[in-house]
Amino acid sequence: MIVEFDKSFDRSLDRIKNKSIFARTEKIILEFEKSKTITDLPNIKKLTGF
Question: What is the per-residue pLDDT for 1?
Fold first, then answer.
């Protein structure tokens, strides 16, 4: 899957000081990049609302 980030997300990643949070975020991003479809990812639910 192709994953793109906007500049504000990049800046937010740069501001993370806690290494464990950064490592978990990196792991999740890598899982997104490896998957072929959204349904391949665990714990993904369709958003509901207005």
Answer: 83
Reduce the DSSP state of residue 42 to 3 states and report it: coil
Any idea how long the chain is?
Answer: 50
Domain boundaries, the chain: 1-50
Rg for the chain (alpha carbons), in Å? Answer: 13
The neighbour count for residue 16, using CB atoms within 10 Å, is 13
Residue with tokens 């369709």: 46
Q: Which of 12, 32, 31 is nearest to 22 (CA)?
A: 12
**Which token pair is 30?**
């890598």
Mean per-residue pLDDT for 22-49?
Answer: 88
